[in-house]
Amino acid sequence: MQNIKQIRNLIGENQIEQAIQLLLEILESSPEQDLYDQMILQKSRWADYKRKHLSGFGDDKEINAIRSSMLDIARELENRKNKPAVKEMPQSSFTPPVAQQTPVLPPPIQQPYIAQCFFNGDPNVYYVQQNNQIVVLNLMTNLPVMVAMRVVSALPAYAWFYQFPNGLYYSIDHAAVIWGVNAFGMPMQMGYVHYL
Questions:
Q1: CB of 134 within 8 A of CB of 125?
Q2: Could you list the residue range(s) of the whole structural domain that residue 9 is in?
Q3: What are the tens digits of pLDDT across the range 67-81?
Q4: Which of 48, 90, 139, 184 has an alpha carbon 20 to 30 Å from 122's alpha carbon atom?
């Protein structure tokens, strides 16, 4: 592309204003509107630089950044012009067979819930099923995912334990308060249980 080579030469000869005008003329009639918008921005940066330069505040870093951006735009334009055009598939009279409806699987049988567990700062609701599994509903599939088990407590102070598969647990007292232990080993209220 002769014009791109000319733009590079103008930038190299520090004829920034002419390079900007030529690049804008090329991009104005081009479908590459994103590059045109970027060039409008560079033209604005150039005008700002000229004002600063006249008042003695112009910086070489600014002009170098403008040059670099313009070279990038020119390179991207050249790459897009040299990219092979995508050929359209020829129209055919073939019509695909009608796809059969895939059978919808019934949702898994869910145990009725006997309680809901709410934790401070956790937007999820955890459900206790009759089989003592504690589940959370997957928001994408609306299917339950088991996260813990309800285990009967041998300690008279607690009604049951919310026990994770790794052995960690929370204690639920007879007032439906969920208790855990903080970093200092002190009991701490983690949430509450709502019995259904």
A1: no
A2: 2-82
A3: 888 888 888 878 877
A4: 184
Contact present, 176 and 192 (Cβ < 8 Å): yes
pTM strictly above 0.90 = no
| Contact of 24 with 38, CB cutoff 8 Å | no
Residues 122 and 184 reside in one and the same domain: yes
Q: Work out how many domains the chain is built from and give that number.
A: 2
- Inside any domain, residue 185: yes
CA 23 to chain CA centroid, Å, is 35
Residue 145 and residue 135: Cα distance in Å, rounded? 5
Does residue 87 form part of some domain? Answer: no
- Are 132 and 76 in a shared domain? no
Give a yes or no: residue 131 inside a domain: yes
Q: Are 6 and 76 in a shared domain?
A: yes
What is the mean pLDDT of the segment spanning 141-158? Answer: 88
Residues 6 or more apart whose Cβ sits within 8 Å of residue 153: 159, 160, 161, 171, 172
Q: How far apart are CA 52 and CA 118, in angstroms?
A: 61
pLDDT digits (tens, 9 = 90+) for 160-190: 999 998 888 999 999 999 999 988 989 999 9
